[in-house]
Amino acid sequence: MAGKKVLIVYAHQEPRSLNGSLKDVAVAELSQQGCSVIVSDLYAMNFEPRATGKDITGTLSNPGFFNYGVEAHKAYKKQSLSSDIIEEQKKLQEADLVIFQFPLYWFSVPAVLKGWMDRVLCQGFAFDFPGSYDDGFLKGKLAILSLTTGGTASMFSKTGVNGDFRYFLWPLQHGTLHFCGFKVLAPQISFGPEMASEEERKGMVASWAQRLKTLWEEEPIQCSPPWYFGQ
């Protein structure tokens, strides 16, 4: 949609991977719509995943006992967070839509993306108390997870060996994105690309490109326990 700003937070090491293709097709399709698109390519940026005292450039409020959450919150208010965090927060602040593109690692995000969430979504910036879930500070923004899995779709069903895919989405979509105020669109899951044919992989990229054409018209999911775990 013309004039919209999109941030793609991308976590894959190989540009020619399916994740790379899904990211590229999103950049192409959304740019063609007139959106301005920025990609944070976390591996290429050598993004630091560890939450440490180095994230605070000023003096610590309690040098005798380090509490990351407290120090990051205070540093955010004093504008003394490290420049890489401030840079990502600026991109996020301006975005209307954030796409997270990643391969599923252990039912979760790769470490570099987990570190991005840990460091960038700090108290004061993304949420506060009060100021979470529907009142989270990133309200008014849309988020979507576009991910690839090792297992096939049937393995991620209620009766499959991994259980329903919605179970592993709970901490990411609800506990992180919704917590910070995002409205969450239904995930784009490309199941088992390693086990698929070249033709099927091309189909995964094409169906994502197709969905992106009307993404702005989609209604967010009802991000509450029944969506994930049934009644």
Automatic annotation (TrEMBL):
One GO cellular component term, please give it.
cytosol
Q: What does the subunit section of this Swiss-Prot or TrEMBL entry state? A: Homodimer.
Per its record, what are the GO molecular function terms? Answer: chloride ion binding; dihydronicotinamide riboside quinone reductase activity; electron transfer activity; FAD binding; melatonin binding; NAD(P)H dehydrogenase (quinone) activity; oxidoreductase activity, acting on other nitrogenous compounds as donors; protein homodimerization activity
What is an annotated GO biological process for this record, any one? quinone catabolic process
Which residues belong to any copy of the Flavodoxin-like fold domain?
Answer: 4-212
Q: Which InterPro entries match?
A: Flavodoxin_fold (IPR003680), Flavoprotein-like_sf (IPR029039), NAD(P)H_dehydrogenase_qn (IPR051545)
Q: Which UniProt keywords apply?
A: Cytoplasm, FAD, Flavoprotein, Metal-binding, Oxidoreductase, Phosphoprotein, Zinc
Tell me where in or outside the cell this protein is found: Cytoplasm
Cofactor list: FAD; Zn(2+)
Q: Which reaction does it catalyse?
A: 1-(beta-D-ribofuranosyl)-1,4-dihydronicotinamide + a quinone + H(+) = beta-nicotinamide D-riboside + a quinol
Q: What does this protein do?
A: The enzyme apparently serves as a quinone reductase in connection with conjugation reactions of hydroquinones involved in detoxification pathways as well as in biosynthetic processes such as the vitamin K-dependent gamma-carboxylation of glutamate residues in prothrombin synthesis.
SUPFAM superfamilies in alphabetical order: Flavoproteins
Enzyme Commission code(s) on record: 1.10.5.1
Q: What class of enzyme is it?
A: oxidoreductase
**Chief subcellular location:** cytoplasm
Write out the similarity annotation: Belongs to the NAD(P)H dehydrogenase (quinone) family.
- Leader sequence segment: none
Task: Identify this protein by name.
Answer: Ribosyldihydronicotinamide dehydrogenase [quinone]
One Pfam match, by short name? Answer: Flavodoxin_2
Keyword Phosphoprotein listed? yes
